[in-house]
Amino acid sequence: MRDNKISVERKKYLKKVTRNKIIIFITQILLLVTFIAAWEICANANIIDSFITSKPSRILDTFMNLSQNGLLEHIGVTCFETIIGFLSGTILGIIVAIILWWSNFLSKVAEPFLVVLNSLPKVALGPVIIIWVGAGMPAIIVMALSISLIVTILEILNGFLNTDKEKIKMAKTFGANKFQILTKIVIPANISTFINSLKVNIGLSLVGVISGEFLVSKAGLGYLIVYGGQVFKLDLVMASVIILGIVAAVMYKSVVLLEKLITKTHIIN
Amino acid sequence: MSNKHEILKIENIRKIYQAKNDELEALKSINLKVNEGEFVSIIGPSGCGKSTLLSIIAGLEEKTSGKIYIDNEEIVGVSRKIGYMLQKDSLLEWRSIYQNIMIGLEIQGIKNKENEKYVKDLLKKYNIYDFRNKYPSQLSGGMRQRVALIRTLAIRPQILLLDEAFSALDYQTRMLVIKDVYRILKNENKTVLMVTHDISEAISMSDRVVVLSNRPSVIKKIYDINFDMESRDPMNCRENPKFSKYYENLWKELDINA
Question: Which positions in chain B touch A182 (Cβ < 8 Å)?
């Protein structure tokens, strides 16, 4: 609890902190505006070929006609695929990690396979997945899942294995069985591990979905980007990329928000 | 002391560790009897296996051979009659103090009205009740150790094992916590078996001090500590002239060569 009276030095310091924040924010906005303005001006003055680079005003037009050109629907498809891939990857990853934590034997057996699978670029499995699951949305979701799954398993297992040994010993002195150690010590001690893996997974699932859409889809932002590129509709490509950036940021922010919510109810500092 | 009830008996405890290229005999043969309400300390050169002995009694480690009896009944594995207090308090930072203290009862599935009342009485008796809804990070090191002790007492163990329970604390806190724990344990009339590397800690708290030999360990000697003073506590007995005599003897017995 801070004192109600704020000293002159403290005031000065706080002022300096806020001023720094404002300066950084203004610089960021300026940079963005300058970039967009330069782009627009150069395109209008024919310094750059707007057929290849598109230009901000035309991208804005594309945004404005969102409902008309079906962009909204494509956004929906990509978000849906990402969320499903993300959730299934995370849940499955946690389940496998629990099994491997439970059985030392299984985790020893699985170790080399996990290492190889982890370093394998999962996009390479794309054609195989399409043949097995069929072209379409399921293949895209499986792709997103396969990208996030192994990382989730490794990260969560690692977190589980690094749980404070003393806390586990403490539970054992009361005669705790393995299930009690898992639910009363290991899982609550790893809440931050879960959240970190959510943060990583949301980005990875998006990568999986977009590369899946590149390969097979008839809808989604990935599809729009490929389609727009093929018919040289650069306005559409640029608009899709920007939307993708926004979608990624919103999803990441939601996880951060969730984190704040959990840490607030979970641990009071 | 002769007509007191013998609560813990350790018979021929032996422990051999198996490693890849060698085996290591930690405990050769340990025999010990502890009476009800007695405070016994175990000291010995570092690496002599004194903590191993305590882990074996607690049922956390397997013994190679030997038997352990509580009230003439042999125990195997973790016994509910034993409470074990470790060096680190290991409070769970996501649980409130009250929830932390309840964890033993939860694990043993005996979280009922009667036990909850017992815990609440303990909390009130030892001035933790007002903190019960706080979280471990809000407590001082000494207070945390007191909570850890109450957590151990919550399951009403007959015998308490203390494994270097104070060595993680800084000197001043340690003195206070030792006094605090001693008072609580005497008050609750608990039987205590404590492992420590600190000779003065052992003398200041114990009725008897057991000295273990180097590995493979046997009991080298058992000292009776008797200050003949009323209201003895771990602080005031340090000023007793006998204290330094005991210290000298034990120091020689340990035969530490730097």
Answer: none
Quick check: A220 and A77 in contact, CB under 8 A?
yes
Query: What is the Cα–Cα distance from B215 to A10, expressed in whole angstroms?
Result: 61
Q: Looking at domain A57-268, which CATH architecture does it have?
A: Orthogonal Bundle (1.10)
Nearest to B108 among A167, A175, A269 (CB): A175
Residues of B in contact with A266 (CB under 8 A): 94
What are the sequence ranges of the domains in chain A?
2-48, 57-268
What is the per-residue pLDDT across A150-175, written as a single tens digit (0 to 9) for each? 999 999 999 999 999 999 999 999 99
Contacts of B58 in chain A (CB under 8 A): 173
DSSP single-letter state for residue B84: E
Number of C-beta neighbours around residue B87 at 10 A: 17
Query: Which residues of A have a CB under 8 Å from any CB of B?
Result: 164, 166-167, 169-176, 180, 184-185, 188-189, 191, 266-269
Segment of A27-31, A117-121, A198-202, B141-145 carrying the highest mean pLDDT: A27-31
Of B58, B106, B137, nearest to A173 by CB-CB distance is B58
> What pTM value is reported for the model?
0.83
B142 CB within 8 Å of a chain A CB: no
Q: Tokens 């404002």 — which residue?
A: A22
Give the integer Cα–Cα distance in Å for B53 and B180.
25
> How high is the mean pLDDT in each 10-residue block of chain B (258 residues)?
76 89 88 91 86 91 91 88 90 92 93 91 88 89 88 91 86 85 87 90 90 87 84 83 85 72
* Domain ranges in chain B with CATH number 3.40.50.300: 1-81+160-166+196-258
Are B123 and B132 contacting, i.e. CB atoms less than 8 angstroms apart? yes
We find that the CATH architecture of domain B1-81+160-166+196-258 is: 3-Layer(aba) Sandwich (3.40)
